[in-house]
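Below sits the subject:
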Amino acid sequence: MKIGEKIKFGRTKMNLTQQELADKLHVTRQALSKWENNQNYPNLDVLLSISKILHTSLDDLLDEDDHGMVRQISNDVRKKRRYVKYFITIGILLLMFSLSSSIFIYGRINQVDRIDVLNPFLKTEYGYAVLPTKAQSGKMDALVVSDPFGHGSWLNFLTGLYDKKHHWALVKHKGSFVFNARPIAKNYVPINIRDVIGDRYSKYENYINSGPRSNTFFNNF
């Protein structure tokens, strides 16, 4: 007895019409009719439901000689395993993306230069800054302006020796990572940016420059 005949036998034994069994399986009556006439085969999930409704085991439903049915079940199992692998892979990729994005955001807000230099969403930029008139030793905080509207970042960098005529700086950076900072004279600063940053150095103050150091709007008149 083939699987279609077994389904029909079990259905009539349970005093169920095709429509009643189809409703229980959430399929159309036409689909059930094709299964009972061995014109098509249900998938593995539906077979499990049929076995429960008809109170029979899955082994009793399957016909070892029905190679088409066995082949379809095998293909169904392989597809489910493949889908599971796809979902796991997608889940891992999404997790990695979320984790890396969180790290890059943390690095941007907190100016972790070693993270910023690896951030693919940041680009290398050139900006201009005003240095203290009196040369300082070691690194200093200065606002590096990148456009005529005063957008820029408070960066910590080292310029080397400079004098009163060269207390401006050209800074090459990617986020908070500074590749190079070179003292320059005022006339080397573009006029539209020169008007924004002015001549006086402003020290970074936490209580004044609140919020992320990397997103600063600055106008110095």
Remarks:
- The mean pLDDT is 84.
- Residues 165 and 185 are 6 Å apart (CA to CA).
- The radius of gyration is 36 Å.
- Helices lie at 3-13, 18-25, 29-36, 44-53, 58-61, 67-110, 113-116, 191-197.
